């Protein structure tokens, strides 16, 4: 989340006239994140989140909005898009595609406990099962072709040894096939700041705008690489073990997934090393933008490479 496009109180008041949400009470920009413009909106009818889409096109957006609506109807605590008076989720504000969704309770945590990791693991399993009945498909926009292109653009900012590591990992994963692994809807960005916790209970999963159709285990790896990582970039065995066991109790892992786990952890780390390098060195102009440190995921990737048997069930 971030603010690239300014929205005034007059702008949002006019826009809200197309909805049955009551009068505006407060408008507050959300500075965290790097992809879209986001504001907290409070009206006479409750609290909401307004999103203006900076990259995604009107043709792409129905997938994400319909997915959130589907998951919300199937018991997953995620933002529910609000339809306007023409029964449309997607509108336009200040020249950008825009939507407004329900604001969920809870807050993100920076130092999750093993109990909280288990709660997130179970919820991710539930989300993957709920997503099986969602009929729409979206190929991963951060897949092999994107990794190849983006890595070439950022390589010049790296020391020679790191650039070689990047090239080697991109080539390695481009050559791998995951045809035998279960697939479905994945969140693809379920970091700590995209989960709202109410003590040890998951209050909400947010920011679904990287969601796509891909390998379910990849989503597990992405999430564990953030939720269950020590400060030195190594997996915390207790947190990772509880996460995996809780997920497995909801959606049991297959034998093929067990075999693919070490390489999937590496792929998940590679994806975010590349994207953080890109956001740091090739940013878009914005009013409030927080670029994350790419060295974190380079360190995580190196540790995964050096570990023969990462934490598993």
Description:
This protein is α+β, with helices and mostly antiparallel strands. The model has no long low-confidence stretch (mean pLDDT about 95). Strands 1-2-3-5-4 form a 5-stranded antiparallel beta sheet, with helices on one face. A two-stranded antiparallel ribbon has the order 6-9. Strands 7-8 form a two-stranded antiparallel ribbon. It has 9 helices and 9 strands. α6 (about 215-225) packs across α8 (about 255-280) and α8 (about 255-280) packs antiparallel against α9.
Which residues sit in consecutive blocks of at least 5 with pLDDT less than 50? none
The best one-word shape is globular
What amount of the residues lies in strands?
15-25%
User: What's the CATH H-level homologous superfamily of the largest domain?
Assistant: Aminoglycoside phosphotransferase (APH), C-terminal lobe
Question: Average pLDDT value?
Answer: 95
Radius of gyration: 20 Å
What is the rounded distance between the termini? 34 Å
CATH architecture of the largest domain: Alpha-Beta Complex
* Helical segment count: 9
Work out the number of β strands. Answer: 9
What proportion of the residues is helical, as a percent range? 40-55%
Counted up, domains total 2
Question: How are the strands ordered across the major sheet?
Answer: 1-2-3-5-4
Query: From N to C, what is the helix and strand string?
Result: HEEEHEEHHHEEEEHHHH
